[in-house]
Amino acid sequence: MSTLTIIIIVIVVIVLLGIAGYYLWDYAEENYGFNIFGTGILVRGLIGILAIVLALLIVTNNETENIDQGVYLLLGIGGILFIWNFIITWIKTNPLIAIFAFIYQIVAAYFVIKLINKAINAFD
Questions:
Q1: Which helix (DSSP H) or strand (DSSP E) does residue 18 occupy?
Q2: Contacts of 122 (CB under 8 A, 6+ apart)
Q3: What domain range includes position 36?
Q4: What total of structural domains would you count in the chain?
C-alpha cells in the first residue's frame, strides 16, 4: 500500500470513530439522560490518567530493582477512578454503552490533557 492510501485509511478511521462517539453520546443523552462525557467523568478520567502516568514515570526513572509502594498506590488510584467511571456509566445507562463509553472516556481525558498542555505552553 502506498503512503497516501495509509493516510486516507487513518483519516477515515478517525472520522468514523468520531461519528460513533457522537452517536454513543447522543443515544445515552436522549434515552437515559446521562452525559457520558460529563464533568465528573472527565475529572475522574484526568486524575486517573495522571496517576497512572506518574506511576509509570516513577518506574521508568527508577534505577533500582525495587518498586516504591507509592507506585502501587498511584496505579490503584488510577484503576479505581476508571472502574468508578465504568460503574457509574453502567448504572445510569446499560452495559453495552458502558463498555464503549469507557474507551471514549479515556480518549476524551487524554485529549483534555493535551489541550491543557497546549494552553500552558502558549504562555511560555
A1: helix 3-32
A2: none
A3: 3-122
A4: 1
